[in-house]
Amino acid sequence: MAAKSQPNVPKAKSIDSVTNDRTASQGQWGRAWEVDWFSLGSIIFLLLCAPFIVYYFIMACDQYSCALTGPVVDIATGRARLSDIWAKTPPITRKAAQLYTLWVTFQVLLYTSLPDFCHKFLPGYVGGIQEGAVTPAGVVNKYQINGLQAWLLTHLLWFANAHLLSWFSPTIIFDNWIPLLWCANILGYAVSTFAMVKGYFFPTSARDCKFTGNFFYNYMMGVEFNPRIGKWFDFKLFFNGRPGIVAWTLINLSFAAKQRELHGHVTNAMVLVNVLQAIYVIDFFWNETWYLKTIDICHDHFGWYLGWGDCVWLPYLYTLQGLYLVYHPVQLSTPHAVGVLLLGLVGYYIFRVANHQKDLFRRTDGRCLIWGKKPKVIECSYTSADGQRHHSKLLVSGFWGVARHFNYVGDLMGSLAYCLACGGGHLLPYFYIIYMAILLTHRCLRDEHRCASKYGRDWERYTAAVPYRLLPGIF
Ligand code: NDP
């Protein structure tokens, strides 16, 4: 367990370990209790603008072949009015609504009704019932980890349809892309609103709810920490992974099918985007148990940020490269393609190894080898809201000794590779790297603020031992 109290586990003593006798944690180290004006402003900006940003990107592809400046220039020069653009936007359709309902229902069924069997025959895969981290209130939730199985079955069906059954065209997602956007928005808003009401009136764990007194902040960042329906339907695990991340690879496949339909072939850029993003998605499901220890599940409350973000932002903006390549069938030169592939693979390697090092370190309570050596450790402690003292460790070796968030660097390299696969014709496919750079930089700061209040002096020791956040010597 990442930060579980381990009273019966003998502590692994390391010659480099440092024990902190003082604890500076406040018992509640999670989401903020009070909102400053900057946070409030950012939240209101995002609540108002994020849905329009998504619409703008998708509309720019649909009506302006992905030229981001196209709509602005047309409006500024009087060639088009907002109402003209809106009139050309496909509305929600019955077909899209049925498709989306079927999709979400299918994913709910896979999540709730099919206990994991992959862990029974896949060596090294950890699935089935697993425990999450200790919440600020001291609760340890159990999760049914069956995302890999859901991903495999969904894709098996997709390929069976494409090659044998022909129930629907593989271009179905692209063909209904904007009508589906409205459906995704309806679900995103519905689930976020439901989670907010649930947090106030019938929370799953009242001790893990947080109220700031500010409606917008509560709505955006969530009130409940781990909202659930029944014993197993966990909102965060479901909405984070499925339908959004399962859909990611299907969306890319549909874009590839559309490219073939329109241009007669699938370009190497489209193949690269499909392959590199599929590695990332499969990695996510292969490591779903590890994911229980990441910030999304361990620390974020479930509000609009996760609910709407997982339903709309993720499937629509993380797939922009594939969408762009439908309109611009870029064929890369061999050196360019190899360069992109290498960047993507090296990025993935850093991302995976860094995340694995921390996971292994925490699972074995430090009794493991990192880069062939006994890891350097900083012993740390914190107090949960129930007053219980917990002990944990911070890793100072491997990538965690290079920089405090080197796993993000790997992620950023992979993200850049997806963008570079699209060539240099337009800005739109580069949105992803810009967004990821902002997201992960902000995440560094947010996480460090939280860790500092959780571990106090112990965290200061870690920052002294590993002074840089992302890139040694730079940041
Ligand atoms: P991390 O996996 O880096 O987890 C941070 C937590 O790890 C900290 O809160 C702390 O938790 C613990 N920790 C920090 N330093 C150490 C250390 N030295 N030794 C041991 N434990 C430590 O963060 P994320 O959840 O943000 O990221 C997980 C992965 O997901 C990353 O690779 C990231 O790139 C990726 N990601 C991708 C996104 C996307 O949209 N594509 C979005 C967000 C993340 P504790 O309280 O347990 O000590």
From TrEMBL:
Q: What class of enzyme is it?
A: oxidoreductase
Annotated GO molecular function terms are:
7-dehydrocholesterol reductase activity; cholesterol-5,6-oxide hydrolase activity
Topological type in the membrane = Multi-pass membrane protein
Entry's localization field: Endoplasmic reticulum membrane
Q: Write the record's keywords in alphabetical order, separated by commas.
A: Cholesterol biosynthesis, Cholesterol metabolism, Endoplasmic reticulum, Lipid biosynthesis, Lipid metabolism, Membrane, NADP, Oxidoreductase, Steroid biosynthesis, Steroid metabolism, Sterol biosynthesis, Sterol metabolism, Transmembrane, Transmembrane helix
Q: Which reaction does it catalyse?
A: cholesterol + NADP(+) = 7-dehydrocholesterol + NADPH + H(+); 5,6beta-epoxy-5beta-cholestan-3beta-ol + H2O = 5alpha-cholestane-3beta,5,6beta-triol; 7-dehydrodesmosterol + NADPH + H(+) = desmosterol + NADP(+); 5,6alpha-epoxy-5alpha-cholestan-3beta-ol + H2O = 5alpha-cholestane-3beta,5,6beta-triol
The EC number on file is 1.3.1.21
Name its GO BP terms in alphabetical order: brassinosteroid biosynthetic process; cholesterol biosynthetic process via lathosterol; positive regulation of ferroptosis
Which pathway or pathways does this protein act in?
Steroid biosynthesis; cholesterol biosynthesis
What superkingdom heads the lineage? Eukaryota
Q: Where are the transmembrane segments?
A: 37-58, 150-170, 176-197, 262-282, 332-351, 415-440
What the entry lists under Pfam families is as follows: ERG4_ERG24
What are the boundaries of the region Disordered?
A: 1-20
Q: Under the cellular component aspect of Gene Ontology, which terms does the record hold?
A: endoplasmic reticulum membrane; nuclear outer membrane
Tell me yes or no: is Transferase among this UniProt entry's keywords: no
InterPro entries, A to Z: ERG24_DHCR-like, Sterol_reductase_CS
Signal sequence annotation: none
On assembly, the entry states: Interacts with DHCR24; this interaction regulates DHCR7 activity. Interacts with TMEM147.
Relate the protein's function as given in its record. Answer: Catalyzes the last step of the cholesterol synthesis pathway, which transforms cholesta-5,7-dien-3beta-ol (7-dehydrocholesterol,7-DHC) into cholesterol by reducing the C7-C8 double bond of its sterol core. Can also metabolize cholesta-5,7,24-trien-3beta-ol (7-dehydrodemosterol, 7-DHD) to desmosterol, which is then metabolized by the Delta(24)-sterol reductase (DHCR24) to cholesterol.
- Would you identify the family this protein belongs to, as annotated? Belongs to the ERG4/ERG24 family.
Name it.
Answer: 7-dehydrocholesterol reductase
Source species of the chain: Papio anubis
Q: What are the leading ranks of the lineage? A: Eukaryota, Metazoa, Chordata, Craniata, Vertebrata
Q: Which gene encodes it?
A: DHCR7
